[in-house]
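Chain A, query sequence.
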Amino acid sequence: MRKFVFFQPGKVIFKEGITREVGSYASKFGSKALVVTGRRFAMRSGYLNLIKESLESHGLKVEVFNQVEPNPSVETVNRGSRIAKEIGAEVIVAFGGGSPMDAAKGIAVATSLGRNVEEFLSPKVVENEVIPVIAIPTTSGTGSEVTKYSVLTYKGKKAVLVGDPIIPKVALLDPQVTYYMPPELSAWTGFDALSHAIEAYISRKSSPLSDLFAVEAIRIITSELSKSVKGDKKARADLHYASMLAGVAINHAGTTMVHGIGYYLTTEHGVQHGLANAMMLLYVLEYYSREVGDKLSELARRAGLGENWKDLIMVIARIEDEVNIPDSISDLKVSLEEVNRMAFEALTYDRNLKNGPVVPSLEEVKAICMKAIRGRREFLKDLIKDK
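Chain A, predicted structure.
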């Protein structure tokens, strides 16, 4: 018999131009707001002024913390928390991609619970209520606007805050903000969302409900990503929606080895997170097919991508070619000599690896990394040969 729990708090509003209405939602939580965002886009695009004007027009006093870097550090989060405490922030508005949203969640935790954010990192679970967060995503990848996770950088590694209280109380999904994304960022964040959805579908914690969100996200992303990268506005809106669906899927089912291995590319080589996922996705799926080939084949059929798991891999590889994902991690300056260290680092992310359908050995992770070194074209030759 099926057995699962599905809990998804928070209001999601999907509407063009909804960003300019943020003040009406924020005013329900208090009169002092901290806006958390990155260093450039919010200011250059004019959205920072628009958000401030909306908040102030609804009677809120506004402070801006626009120092969030990619892959935000706990030091940045603690700095933002000190500002939030100084102004007595009652609501936090996060505007940006995954980094500002994750930083905002961390700031909410550190501010509300009165200590540095690193004291609450997993395996601890955030259980007490925190300052409400309103999330306005500007990319279509992380799904952080609907998740209980905040991924931060701590001592040179990826670390995570986790807990239902950090799920944003309101997510404002405005397709218009995604029109600013350059093609490569649209490609990379799209693959982040695709990876989320596929990993959630095959994870140990998947359920019939999380699968519904995952399959629909996969169907949309594989259909629309190439058009989104070319700037098609309808496709951009569709990807924004699909990213949120994939976020709901991982909120319940989590991620797997794709993330566990990909983190090395980000922390050691500065590879954007979604691109790192794209570089590992094919090889991890081929490995997992030995355990859950039937479920991956079912996914291919449900999403309209073919009849079996090899068809699924071929479709993903074709899209990677279309949106200019590099062929090999060697193209990203990862050397053959790094494979041992890369594999060993992956094993330290046991939260991700243990969530997969099968837990790999060190030698198996090395073999996956070697395939990523050889690259997609060589990998596909072998796959077709065995088909």
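The longest strand covers residues 61-68. The mean pLDDT is 97.
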